[in-house]
Specification:
By secondary structure, the chain is mainly alpha-helical. It has three helices and three strands, in the order αααβββ. It folds into two domains: about 45 residues; about 70 residues, Ribonuclease Inhibitor (Leucine-rich repeat, LRR (right-handed beta-alpha superhelix), Alpha-Beta Horseshoe), CATH 3.80.10.10. The protein is about 50% helix and about 10% strand. Strands 1-2-3 form a three-stranded mixed beta sheet. The longest helix has about 40 residues. It is rod-shaped. It comes from Marchantia polymorpha (Common liverwort). InterPro entries: LRR_dom_sf.
């Protein structure tokens, strides 16, 4: 084998570890971005329309505070939602002097865990 051919093979072998490093770096970057995109998608999740209808009915029936724009999970103190903000899980209606019946749309709150309605 000629000397130049041997030198070429040595150079190629020296570059292989760098290529493996670059391949790994690309894979890690893709994994990092895919995880990040999933988090962004969850952060922008919205309540289903039937849950919006339910909390609007509660708001109108009991004269509760309104959200001006955007996500009611972030803008109203009496509504607490799941971590992904895709379902209402808690209603804080203490000291609201509630009277009357609960609107039928309340049944649309499929993930409700707790509802505080006491008046101390």
């Amino acid at each position: 084998m000629s000397t130049s051919r041997t030198q070429t093979l040595r150079r190629q072998r020296q570059h292989q570890p760098n290529m493996r490093f670059m391949d790994r770096l690309v894979v890690y970057f893709i994994l990092f971005c895919s995880v990040d995109l999933r988090l962004i998608r969850k952060a922008n999740a919205a309540l289903p329309p039937d849950e919006i209808t339910a909390i609007e009915a509660l708001r109108d029936k009991f004269n509760l505070s309104n959200w001006t724009a955007g996500d009611p999970c972030s803008n109203v103190k009496w509504i607490k939602c799941s971590g992904a903000k895709t379902n209402v899980e808690l209603l804080l209606l203490t000291n609201s002097n509630l009277t009357g019946t609960i609107p039928s749309e309340f049944k649309n709150l499929k993930s409700i865990i707790t509802m505080y309605v006491n008046n101390p």
